[in-house]
TrEMBL record:
Name of the protein: Coenzyme F420 hydrogenase/dehydrogenase, beta subunit C-terminal domain
Source organism (scientific name): Coprococcus ammoniilyticus
Sequence ranges assigned to domain Coenzyme F420 hydrogenase/dehydrogenase beta subunit C-terminal in this UniProt record: 91-260
Transmembrane annotation, as ranges: none
Phylogenetic lineage: Bacteria, Bacillati, Bacillota, Clostridia, Lachnospirales
InterPro entries: FrhB_FdhB_C (IPR007525), Polyferredoxin-like_ET (IPR052977)
Amino acid sequence: MKPEKVYACYNINKDLRLNSSSGAVFSSLAEYVLNKQGVVYGVAMSEDCYSAEFIAVTDEVGMARLRGSKYLQAKIGNTFKSVKRNLIAGRHVLFTGTGCQVNGLKNFLERDYDNLICVDVICHGAPSPALWKKYAEYQEKKNGGKLRDINFRCKDDGWVDFGMKEMLKNIPQSEEKKLYISRDKDPYMQMFLRDYCLRPSCYECAAKEERKSDLTIADFWGIKDVAPEMNDGLGTSLVLIRTKKGQEIFNYISCEMKLKEVTYEAGVKGNPAEYKSCIRPSQRDTFFDDMYTMSFEELEEKYAAPIKYSLKTRVKRKVKKIMKSMLRVIGGAESNLEYGLLFVFRV
Ligand SMILES: Cc1cc2nc3c(=O)[nH]c(=O)nc-3n(C[C@H](O)[C@H](O)[C@H](O)COP(=O)(O)OP(=O)(O)OC[C@H]3O[C@@H](n4cnc5c(N)ncnc54)[C@H](O)[C@@H]3O)c2cc1C
Ligand code: SF4
C-alpha cells in the first residue's frame, strides 16, 4: 500500500534523538497534540518491567515513558474504549502502535474522527510477552537485583549497532547496576531478530496490505546509500505520509526536523517489513514448546548462539569503538565531526 509522500528525517533536538529509537519523529508528533491539551496513547514498560502496556499521557513528564521501542507485544486493556471517550469529549488524540493495533482501533471506532491522529510503526513482528518475562527474571537472577529500567535501543555504540541497556536495583539495598549488552550478544534480542518468538499473525501480517494510519514511522535502514548527508549515526527516521491529515501535521512539525523527500522505492529498499511479512522459521513451533519447558539458559544455548563475525569486521568494530571513545575524551566532539572522521577512516 503506497503512501502519498515519503521522507527521510530526524529531529534537530539531539537529546530527544538519543532517547528515541530512530529519529525522534514520534516526540514531535506527540508535542503537537499535547500543545492542544490532547491525549497521547502509546506503549510503556510496566513498573516491574515484566510487561509492556498502553498508557495515556497528557504532559511532557509522561512522554519519557513512551519514548523508545519496547520489543514485546503490549497489553491493550481498555485503551480503545478510553480513546473513544476522549474523542467524543472533543479532545485531540494521538494513538501510536503497530499496524494491527491501529487497524484494530479504527475497526472498533467504526467511523472517522477529525480529532484523531493515528501513527503506526513499521513492524516486522511483536515478540511473546511470556518470553520477555522469562528473560527479565533470568537477568534478575544472574545479576542479583530487580529490573527497573530497560532501553531496547541504546545508541551508545551508534544507532545501527544498537544494544540493550538495563538498570537493576537493590544489589544490595538501593544500589544500582547498569548493563549494556550489544544486540549481537543479547539472547533475547537474538531470538527476536531471528524471528523465533513472534505472534502467529506476524508471519501473515494483514496490516502490510492495508494500513489505516495517517502516518507510518520507522528506522530509515539504508539511509547511508539513499541520502548519506542525513546519516550522522544518531538515528534517521523513515516517514510515510498516508492521508491529508498526516501531511498537515507533518508540515506543522517539519520546522523541528531536518528532512529530505525520497521515493517510496528508495525509502523501503532496506526495510522490507513495510510491505511483506517475515518468513516463519522452521524452528518456530519447537521454540514455543521449549519456551514453556526449558530454562532461559537452555533456550539461550539452543536458539541464541552469539553471531560470529569475521576477523575483518571485528577489527573494524574495535577501531570504531576506540575512535569514538577517543573523540569523547578530547572534548565531546560534535557528531558530524565524529562521523566525518569515522567515514574518512572507513570504519
Ligand atoms: C515491536 C516493534 C517492532 C518494530 N520493527 C521495526 C522494523 O522491523 N523496522 C523498522 O524500521 N522499525 C521497526 N519498529 C519501529 C522503530 O523501532 C521505532 O519505534 C520507530 O522508528 C519510531 O521511532 P522514533 O524515534 O520516532 O520514536 P520513539 O520514541 O522511539 O517511539 C516509540 C514509539 O513506538 C511505540 N511503541 C513502543 N513500543 C511499542 C510496542 N511494543 N508496541 C506498539 N508500539 C510501541 C511508542 O508508543 C511510541 O509511539 C518497530 C517497533 C516496535 C515496537
Ligand atoms: S507484524 Fe503485523 S501482526 Fe505482527 S505486530 Fe506487527 S503489525 Fe501486528
